[in-house]
Amino acid sequence: MSTAPATTPAQRAPELLGQTVVVLGGSAGIGLETARAARAAGAEVIITGRNPERLEHAARELGALSTAAFDVTDPARLGRFFDDVPKPIDHVMVSGSGPYYAPLAEMDFDKVRRDIDQHLLLALHVGRRAVGAVRPGGSLLFIGGTGGRRRGVGLTLIGALTAAMPAVVANLAVEIAPVRVNLVAPGFVDTALSASLLGDELDARRDELRAALPIGRVVGPADVAALAVHVMANSALTGATFDVDGGQQLV
C-alpha cells in the first residue's frame, strides 16, 4: 500500500520585499510600529521625526536605510527631504500627531492653525511632493482617526478635520494617480500619545474598552501597522478609508 507524498504549503514572499517605505513620524507610536512591520515584510525603511535622539534610537532598532530629523509641517524642509531622498519610493506613510480638543469659547487659534497644518495641509504638501517621487502603483498612506465622528463640546475642530480627510484622500487618489492614496482611521490606540492625553485616566479607559469592545481587548499600534502594510501591498486599494477601532463605533 502506497501513501501519497507529504506536501507543504507554498511559502509566500514577504509582502513588501525589495521595496522602500518612508515613514514620516516614524520614531514612535504607530509610525514606529508600521516601520517595524514594513521591515518584517521585507522593506527597507526611511524614517523621519522631530526628536533626533529618539529618531537615532529607532533607526538603530530598525536598521533603517536612512533618517531625517525635521518638522514635517515646514513645507520648505519637507520639500528638501523629498528632493534628497533616493527615488523611486514605493510607499510613504504619514503618521498623525495628537488632536486638539477645545470648546469654542476656549479655543487657542494659534493651536487651531497648527492643527490644521498638521492634519490637513500636510496631506496636500505630501501629495504634491509624491508626484515624481513615488513610483506608479506605489502609495501614500495617511493616519487619521474615528474620534471626530462623534458630536460634542470640544470636538468642533477634530470633527471638521475628521470629515475632511476622507475627501482629501479620495480626491488625491484621482489627481495623482497612478500613485495610490489611502487613509487608515484608528479609534483609541494604546500608545504613549494616548497615555499623555489621558494621564491618570488611562487605566480606566483601558478597562472600559476591554469591557465594551466586541473584540474584548484594546487596539494596539501593531493592529494599525498590520493594516497599513496590507494597504501598501494591495495594489487594488486607492481612495479609501479603512477603520481599525475594534468595533468602538458600534458601542
Account of the protein in words:
It is a single chain. This protein has eight helices and seven strands. Strand 2, helix 2 and strand 3 form a beta-alpha-beta unit. Strands 3-2-1-4-5-6-7 form a seven-stranded parallel β-sheet, sandwiched between helices. Helix 1 crosses helix 8, helix 3 packs parallel to helix 4 and helix 4 packs parallel to helix 5. The radius of gyration is 19 Å and the shape is globular. With 251 residues, the protein is an alpha/beta fold. It has one domain: Rossmann fold, CATH 3.40.50.
In CATH's first tier, which class applies?
Answer: Alpha Beta
Largest sheet: 7 strands, parallel
The helix fraction, in percent, is: 40-55%
The tally of beta strands, per DSSP, is: 7
How far apart are the termini?
59 Å
Total number of domains: 1
Outline, from the CA principal axes? globular
Report low-confidence residues grouped into runs of 5 or more.
none
CATH architecture assignment? 3-Layer(aba) Sandwich
Q: What name does the CATH topology carry?
A: Rossmann fold
Pattern of helices and strands: EHEHEHEHEHEHHHE
The CATH superfamily title: NAD(P)-binding Rossmann-like Domain
How do the strands of the widest beta sheet line up side by side?
Answer: 3-2-1-4-5-6-7
Structural class: alpha/beta
Mean pLDDT: 92
- Strand percentage: 15-25%
Spatial extent as radius of gyration: 19 Å
- Report the total helices: 8
